[in-house]
């Protein structure tokens, strides 16, 4: 037998657990039978008993079991097939995003749900005024210090106000994020997904809509939510919007607090776990629970799965999220996007305020109705700006840009040695426009910086040779050739001054 040909198995069994033995054997052979290891147990066990003991751990080990005539075959789970966009899928997705509007069926469902809940038409003056008060209260609360916030959006008009004001932008934001995941190879042809703190189902509904435009791919989406009011809204919108028998199955949410142990009835492994606009709302005077929460859920992550964390783009939430993501290495998680990895090191996020943007959405009819008042700006929410991080297990490696000749380009960690000099460097563009029409400003990073670094392009220095700094997308890798290094002492940051003599090579023009 196979095991008999490896005498070290006895040593493994003597000093380690049954699980260690299974893991050892699996590492030396693509498949084996449980009966093959029975003779090496100190106290022989029936195959069925061995199987019951190891079954809960098999997914974590990347293994699967199959019954074989009184025996059990153990073999490696084949790698999931990635899902990459074809031309037709890109075109359909682009057409949808260019409309910049919530799907009409979903917009109507929100109006109908409000009508159902309040017992009056959604555009009744009393209903409209109460929605305005709920939205104003939520916005006022948002800008309080973290420990003073009471953001919950969990009952009554707070849920309806969330549907009216936040839902449309977050739904479209999720569609843009899914496209990023799709294009960067994080999606699979068959997925099991968990949305943590789902609220009224923004993420699951966006997933169902996104997958409806794909030629292949299917998903089962699970969710956790503690508010019964949100769960009620979730189920109403799901039934109105997600077709039965479609490529995505959206399960009813599990009622639970995300700070508690995971509820029963969830799958053992997930290909994608999403924390969208939920971790930033956890304010605790006794400490920061976020890392512990993410780490606990990460125990259910498939070996090649990903965790998506999304937070608003304001400086406080964005920088807190970056610090959280960079600090999850003890949980075995590494940031794989949007941060650059071409230097072979993970960024430590020194005071990192980085966010992506997308075209503003068109106001829904409900927003337009709310805005018919003296302070209309309070009730229109259309801007898409968000900070995000995609985390995977440290052992996972994805294809991407690799720096072939690092000596040609200065590391950002060494800028202090070249102050006042012109240098060549290579960076990832890590923000939208932070400047103005006179002076363009973008955050850049290479994973090594110990202080924030910005690329600065005065408008009068713009040329065809450096225009790529403006046109490149968020996360794009850029070569900056001949930039002047300056130190901003007031903010303890570094500026890379791009002028008319600087060449900026975009993502398709790298010289290597």
| Mean pLDDT figure | 86
How far apart the termini lie comes to 51 Å
Number of strands: 18
Q: Write out the CATH superfamily name of the largest domain.
A: Vaccinia Virus protein VP39
Shape type: globular
Return the CATH class of the largest domain: Alpha Beta
Q: What is the quaternary state of this protein?
A: single chain
CATH topology of the largest domain: Rossmann fold
CATH architecture of the largest domain: 3-Layer(aba) Sandwich
The main β sheet shows up as:
9 strands, mixed
Q: What class do helices, strands and sheet pairing give?
A: alpha/beta
- Quickly count the domains: 3
The tally of helices reads 14
Low-confidence stretches are: 1-16
> What fraction, in percent, of the residue positions are helical?
25-40%
Give the radius of gyration: 26 Å
Hey, roughly how much beta strand do the residues contain?
A: 15-25%
Please give a quick description of this structure:
This protein has 512 residues and is an alpha/beta fold.
Structure description:
The chain starts with 7 loop residues before the first helix and ends in a 7-residue tail after the last strand. It has 14 helices and 18 strands. With 512 residues, the protein is of the alpha/beta class. It folds into three domains: 3-76, no CATH class; 90-393, Vaccinia Virus protein VP39 (Rossmann fold); 406-505, Nucleic acid-binding proteins (OB fold (Dihydrolipoamide Acetyltransferase, E2P)). Strands 4, 5, 6, 7, 8, 9, 10, 11 and 12 form a nine-stranded mixed beta sheet that branches. Strands 13-14-15-17-16 form a five-stranded mixed barrel. α5 (104-118) packs across α10, α6 (125-142) packs across α7 and α8 (167-183) crosses α9. It is 30% helix and 22% strand.
């Amino acid at each position: 037998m196979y095991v008999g040909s490896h005498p070290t198995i006895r040593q493994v069994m003597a000093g380690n657990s049954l699980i260690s033995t299974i893991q050892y054997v699996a590492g030396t052979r693509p498949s084996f039978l449980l009966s093959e290891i029975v003779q090496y147990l100190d106290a022989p066990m029936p195959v069925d008993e061995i199987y019951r003991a190891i079954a809960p751990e098999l997914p974590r080990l990347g293994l699967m079991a199959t019954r074989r005539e009184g025996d059990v075959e153990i073999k490696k789970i084949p790698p999931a097939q990635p899902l990459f966009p074809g031309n037709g899928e890109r075109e359909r997705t682009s057409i949808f995003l260019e409309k910049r509007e919530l799907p009409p069926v979903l917009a109507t469902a929100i109006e109908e749900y409000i009508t159902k809940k309040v017992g009056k038409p959604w555009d009744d003056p009393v209903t409209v005024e109460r929605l305005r008060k709920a939205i104003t209260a939520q916005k006022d609360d948002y800008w309080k210090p973290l420990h003073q916030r009471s953001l919950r959006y969990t009952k009554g008009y707070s849920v309806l106000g969330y549907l009216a004001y936040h839902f449309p932008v977050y739904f479209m934001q999720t569609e843009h994020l899914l496209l990023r995941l799709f294009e960067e190879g994080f999606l699979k042809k068959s997925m099991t997904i968990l949305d943590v703190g789902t609220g009224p189902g923004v993420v699951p509904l966006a997933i169902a809509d996104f997958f409806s435009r794909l030629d292949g791919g299917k998903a089962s989406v699970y969710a956790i939510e503690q508010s019964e009011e949100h769960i009620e809204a979730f189920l109403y919108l799901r039934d109105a919007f997600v077709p039965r028998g479609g490529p995505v199955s959206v399960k009813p949410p599990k009622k639970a607090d995300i700070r508690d142990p995971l509820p029963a009835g969830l799958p053992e492994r997930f290909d994608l776990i999403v924390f969208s606009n939920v971790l930033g709302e956890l304010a605790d005077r006794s400490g920061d629970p976020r890392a512990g929460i993410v780490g606990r859920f990460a125990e259910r992550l498939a070996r090649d799965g990903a965790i998506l964390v999304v937070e608003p783009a304001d400086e406080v939430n964005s920088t807190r999220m970056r610090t959280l993501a960079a600090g999850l290495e003890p949980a075995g998680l590494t940031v794989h996007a949007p941060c650059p990895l071409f230097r072979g090191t993970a960024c430590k996020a020194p005071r990192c305020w980085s966010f992506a943007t997308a075209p503003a959405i068109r106001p829904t009819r409900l927003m337009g109705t709310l805005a018919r008042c003296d302070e209309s700006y309070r009730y229109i929410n259309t801007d898409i700006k968000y900070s995000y991080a995609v985390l995977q297990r440290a052992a996972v490696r994805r294809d991407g840009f690799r720096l072939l000749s690092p000596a040609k380009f200065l590391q950002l960690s060494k800028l202090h040695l070249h102050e006042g000099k012109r240098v060549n460097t290579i960076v990832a563009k890590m923000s939208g426009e932070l400047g103005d029409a006179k002076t363009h400003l973008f955050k850049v990073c290479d994973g090594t910086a110990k202080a924030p670094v910005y690329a600065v392009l005065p408008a009068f220095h713009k040329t065809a040779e450096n225009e790529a700094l403006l046109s490149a997308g968020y996360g794009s890798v850029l070569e900056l050739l001949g930039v002047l290094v300056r130190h901003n002492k007031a903010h303890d940051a570094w500026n890379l001054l791009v002028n008319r003599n600087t060449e900026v090579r975009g993502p398709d023009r790298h010289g290597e």
